[in-house]
Design brief:
Order of helices and strands: HEEHHHHHHH
Oligomer: single chain
Low-confidence stretches: none
Strand content: 5-15%
Number of domains: 2
Structural class: mainly alpha
Number of helices: 8
Helix content: over 70%
Length: about 230
């Protein structure tokens, strides 16, 4: 996805969400729901205007942060090589926050929507999209599975992200399928946690296999000379 296309899409999404908030603002209640428990019941509120404009604000911050990343990435870790993927992540995250914002407004208006199912399904879809492009992410300090071992080796980074992308998609598929079935949230958290930690552990063992942790001979020689 080209930079200009991504920026225009994000600005359209954020503008539309802000327009909806402004249109509904006079009839919105003084307290806007901002949190739901595992049963889909509202258990957290925020007063206007912050409650009404919270999601548009978060979407705008995500947009600005994603625009900032390519500008501040140091040499050797630039995101230029996979900028189209960064743009896809940018649009996806902004669209996701906008969807959550719309659900929040519907709940505030008294619309009885299955927020728990919709949110979990939305997160699942988000993970599937991110996982699908994870293998295209190149070594950088801001996006991806950034462990000491992936950052130290291009091969470890590449292979870890191939595995991580597949696991992320599987976790998303589990949430997408499990949401309508109302699988216990504890099981969902466990599955997602295991899938998230597996690439981290994998990167360590893969680095140990490919590079090892033996002392650098050149450094040892310098130390011996100093002694």
């Amino acid at each position: 996805m080209k930079n200009k296309v991504a920026d225009v899409l994000c600005l359209i999404i954020i503008t539309l969400l802000v327009a909806v908030v402004i249109y509904l603002y006079p009839v919105l209640p003084e307290k806007i729901p901002t949190h739901w428990n595992a049963a889909g019941e509202i258990d957290g509120y925020m007063a206007k205007p912050w409650g009404a404009f919270l999601m548009p604000l978060i979407a705008a911050v995500i947009f600005l942060v994603m625009k900032l990343i390519p500008m501040i990435s140091p040499k050797g870790f630039r995101t230029d090589e996979f900028r189209p993927v960064v743009n896809i992540f940018q649009v996806t995250l902004v669209a996701f926050m906008a969807a959550i914002g719309l659900l929040t407004l519907l709940a505030a208006m008294g619309v009885n929507a299955p927020v728990d199912i919709l949110v979990v399904s939305g997160v699942g879809l988000l993970l599937i999209i991110l996982g699908n492009f994870m293998s295209k992410v190149r070594k950088n300090f801001f996006i991806g599975i950034r462990t000491p071992w992936t950052l130290a080796s291009d091969e470890v980074w590449s292979r870890t992200h191939r595995l991580g992308g597949r696991l992320l998609m599987l976790a998303g598929l589990f949430m997408l399928v499990g949401a309508p079935l109302k699988i216990q949230s504890e099981l969902t958290v466990l599955v997602v946690t295991v899938f998230a930690l597996t690439p981290v552990i994998y990167s360590y063992f893969l680095y140990r296999k490919l590079e090892g942790f033996e002392p650098d001979p050149a450094i040892e020689d310098d130390l011996n000379k100093d002694l």
